[in-house]
From TrEMBL:
Name the UniProt record assigns to this protein: Uncharacterized protein
Signal peptide as annotated in the record: none
Keyword list, A-Z: ATP-binding, Nucleotide-binding
Gene Ontology terms: cellular component: cytoplasm
Highest taxon in the source lineage: Bacteria
Length: 614
């Protein structure tokens, strides 16, 4: 192959898998006409393909490009990258387009190259955090003595990019280096480094360490910080408290942050709204967990308004806000809204490589989709949550995903798989006390019940809930767990105890309880009534009301369960024609959701009622 043709091929390889012929000819130092002839020859040899507009080519395969690139000498490649960077600068290309070439050709101490790499990283952090971290690493390596004071700032940015991508351990190591290199008088940078270190500890499930870092910074360095920086620390404390199940502290710190943002120099809703939206979503979830539906709805409405008014470009660095909002909406029973915000958060998390937040978003989505009866999608999201959690080294999203997988397996009649998912999650010592542990511990209950161990079910639910009042479960979700206990007591043959559990479910309701939770309380009473022959007519009415509540909540599998109970009660009363309609409804719903075990039960009851119908 002629030398010029080889040189042009190498110039194209320097520019990338796809390249502009004019720019490649400049890098090759060749006349453009001669370069085009060389590219034609490379195309005839099937090394290149024409691409799109006239004058663009691409390598047949990335491996071909790599082989051509590596065939050039190291010195030649450095000079070629320098030419490419200069040519792109003359064309007005943004720093992100020039950064790959600057990184490969800049000399140590080149202040302009350092500035360009930093600017490029800032452009790419939201969309490609790993690439941004690599460019910041190059900027740090190129920095000379004049940039020594800026090193901690660059290290923080590099660590933050790695944390964004879910590479928490690497980010943690760099943050320690940044903290040691930090001048003692730079209080504001220290606060930012501390907040990021605490965020890493939080994402790793190290809640005590995260809280200690944040509280120490609030105590020692708050006088030198802006209101926005103080609010970030307060919101960090609130986030950790909420994950630990300390809803009072979470609400208190979130309220403090909102007040701080209203101070002069803060950035409340009228300026940069995302901090206020984060505080609002934290408050919504804290109040919903505590059972204060009115306050939850107030803060949730404000957070949702901000989310819906914010475009993706601004929201992308703040995808924890749709995650928190989605969890709050799930707790309040608004499944469609929850899925809408979780889907948006997931799309942005995938786009920007936010692995840690994606794990939480996947787990929340799995729970929502399970309640909606979309089990195939729910299972896929649960698997994605588990994989993302393994990448970041945090067991809590894995446990939340395991509770969803267990519920899906139970609906599908695979009790062994459901039980194994719970037991595997419970065996992890790193799972700290809090809502995720309560969720997986509670899910162990119905698994044991379906495996023929109702006494074990009662023990598991009471242990997870922290005693007979089930205070470790969110207040608005307790009727669901009391209904599990009701079923377990019925399976043990203790109808009186079952009746007390059903009354507990009803007592846990408030006027603002989600429709689905009303359904659980009604269904618990109906199941107790169904076991008492003299109460079958009332049980049928309660089961019908439960089915209506579940239909309102868009929970089709629970609606099918309630319809099956209503049909059974009606059949026991001799009202077989009415029973048939309930059994048909249960069969159709369970079939539509792909749950053959429940469908077969409905079919069997349908046949039995049809046989005795006059």
């Amino acid at each position: 192959m002629p030398v010029l043709t080889q040189t042009c091929a190498r110039a194209g390889a320097v520019l990338g898998d796809s390249f502009d012929a004019e720019l490649a000819s400049f890098v090759a130092g060749a006349d453009e006409t001669a370069a085009l002839a060389a590219f034609d020859e490379l195309t005839e040899r099937d090394l290149l393909r024409r691409e799109g507009p006239l004058g663009r080519f691409r390598f047949r395969h990335p491996l071909v490009r790599t082989a051509v690139y590596q065939s050039a000498g190291s010195g030649w490649r450095i000079e070629a990258h320098r030419k490419a960077a200069n040519a792109l600068a003359l064309r007005g290309a943004p720093p992100a387009a020039r950064a790959p070439h600057i990184r490969q050709s800049a000399r140590p101490g080149d202040a302009r190259a350092v500035e360009d790499l930093i600017a490029a990283a800032e452009q790419m952090t939201a969309l490609a955090p790993v690439t941004a971290a690599e460019w910041l690493g190059a900027a740090i390596a190129l920095s000379g003595p004049r940039q020594e004071r800026s090193q901690p700032e660059l290290l923080l940015k590099q660590a933050a990019a790695l944390v964004t991508a879910g590479r928490l351990r690497e980010g943690q190591d760099i943050l320690r280096t940044a903290a040691h290199a930090l001048p003692e008088d730079d209080l504001r940078l220290r606060a930012r480094i501390t907040a990021t270190r605490a965020d890493v500890e939080y994402q790793l499930g190290h809640y005590h360490q995260a809280t200690a870092l944040l509280l120490r910074e609030l105590k020692d360095g708050a006088d030198g910080l802006s209101p926005a920086e103080i609010a970030d620390l307060q919101l960090g404390v609130a986030s950790v408290a909420l994950r630990r199940g300390d809803v009072d502290s979470a609400a208190e710190r979130s309220e403090e942050a909102l007040r701080t943002l209203q101070e002069p120099g803060g950035d409340g809703p009228g300026r940069e709204p995302m901090r206020a939206a984060r505080a609002g979503s934290l408050l919504a979830l804290a109040h919903a967990t505590a059972g204060d539906a009115a306050q939850a709805d107030l803060h949730l409405a404000r957070a949702v308004q901000t989310l819906d008014d914010t475009d993706d470009r601004i929201l992308a660095p703040h995808v924890d806000v749709p995650a928190l909002t989605g969890w709050a909406e799930l707790t309040r029973g608004d499944l469609d809204a929850a899925l809408r915000h979780l889907d948006r958060g997931l799309r942005l998390a995938r786009l920007t490589g936010r692995t840690a937040v994606a794990a939480d978003l996947y787990a929340a989505s799995a729970h929502v989709l399970t309640l909606l009866g979309r089990l195939d999608e729910a299972e896929a999201h649960a698997e994605d949550a588990a994989e993302a959690a393994v990448l970041i080294g945090n067991d809590e999203p894995r446990s939340l995903a395991a509770s969803a997988r267990s519920a899906i397996a139970l609906w599908r009649g695979d009790v062994a798989r459901a039980l194994a998912a719970c037991e595997e999650a419970m065996s992890r010592d790193s799972l700290a006390p809090g809502p995720p542990r309560a969720a997986i511990g509670g899910m162990l209950g119905p698994c044991l019940l379906e495996s023929g161990d109702p006494a074990g079910c009662v023990r598991a639910v009471l242990t997870a809930g922290g005693g007979t009042d089930l205070l470790r479960f969110g207040a608005l979700t307790r009727p669901r767990w009391f209904r599990v206990l009701t079923r377990a007591e019925l399976a043990r043959g203790d109808v009186a105890a079952a009746g007390r559990r059903a009354e507990d479910a009803a007592a846990a309701l408030t006027p603002d309880s989600p429709a689905g939770q009303r359904g659980f309380a009604l269904l618990a009473r109906a199941e107790v009534g169904l076991s008492l022959k003299e109460a079958e007519s009332e049980a049928a009415e309660q089961a019908d009301e439960a089915a209506t509540a579940f239909r309102t909540a868009r929970m089709p599998l629970y609606e099918a369960t309630a319809s099956l109970a209503a049909g059974s009660a009606l059949a026991a009363c001799g009202r077989h024609a009415e029973a048939l309609t309930r059994f048909v409804r249960a069969r159709d719903l369970s079939a539509a959701c792909g749950v053959p075990a429940l469908r077969d039960r409905a079919e069997e009851r349908l046949r039995r009622s049809a046989d005795v119908r006059p």
